[in-house]
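Thread: "does anyone have the structure for this chain?"

Original post by V.I.:
We have the sequence but no experimental structure in hand. Need at least a predicted one for the grant figures.
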Amino acid sequence: MKKYFFVLGSNKELSLAELSAIFPENKWQKFNSIVISEFLLELEVKSLISSLGGIIKIGEVTKEINLANRHSLSENVKKELIQSAKSAKREELLGKFNFGFSFYEDVRVPGDFFKLGLAIKKDLKNIGISSRMVTSKEKILSSVVVEQNNLISKGLELCLITDKKSVFLGKTLAVQPFKALSRRDFGRPQRDDHSGMIPPKLAQIMINLVRRDDKDYNKKTLLDPFCGSGTILTEAYLMNFKKIIGSDLSAKAISDSAKNIDWIIDWADKGKDKQKEKNIFEVFQSDILNLDDKIEKNSIDYIVCEPYLGPQRGYKNFNEVVVELNELYSKALEVFYKILKPGGRVVMIWPQFRAEGKIWKISPDIKSFKVFPILADNNDSIVYGRVEQKVWREIVVLEK
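Reply from O.Q.:
Generated one for you, tokens below.
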């Protein structure tokens, strides 16, 4: 039995919902920006974090120490670092052993960790290990700092997670692959800033919410009927889905998706048979209202999409927009119900409009779908957005 910690992304509720979907049996010890849970089997953290859009870091909890015992805390921190440095030396890693501290939650950890770090550097020097302490203006080392200073591959980031009684010591094992995510977002050949695009991290979260704890998810068929430039399609490919379908009313969107699919196949470099990889995808132009003429009834396992959210620029009469979108979404859900298999799921985004101190919500007819609670405390949906935004997003999970 091992205990792992997960550092949540900017929308903590959405990050926890993603984790709860992948590990539905786990009980989570919740802090402000971190959750901890026990696992029977050792996690493949590097592959796991690459498929979790809402998780910043994953690490192993090695100790729980009473907050009142300052001496025990210092000694355990020193012991953890020296053991890691000795292990690195045995593996003959080149260069200095780099280490750093990150302090999570609001309770102040006792002790001067800068002085403790200097003392540890001296102890390491006495046993022939050259080291460097990595510091930051913030109390938390960012993923970029951890990665660029080799604190996982050739060093150690020690995280101190504090509640009112205890300090949990944890060593970071993996950080979110920010370079790869940035390249998939900004480096793809076709981007449609005018129509708007969901980022790869959000696409990953939505796919994880729809597949939930399905161990055979990658044998299933996933559809994005509002595919745009193909972000959900390409992220599903990287998550090893074997059948991925995309459609859109716009001919430009279909062209953009096709180019981005070719690019992601080259980027992922899964094998030499590129035509076989291309055959995983089926992308075509279609009005959502006629989609059931092109897709067999009861054939789709998952639908993941961000539909048309209304006019993006200029003056909006939100009352009129809500009426228009209620009609569009209701008709789309009617089509979804026809083409989904029994038990099939939908994860989609519904817009909320916020301006002049008011909130306008859409309320489409969900037909015979049941709302699937996103979190164990019966959250029917999660709403997120920035204060200055007029269009917020509500993530909804439905099941046939």
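V.I.: this helps a lot. DSSP finds eleven helices and 17 strands in the chain.
O.Q.: and Residues 183-399 form a domain with the Rossmann fold fold (CATH 3.40.50.150).
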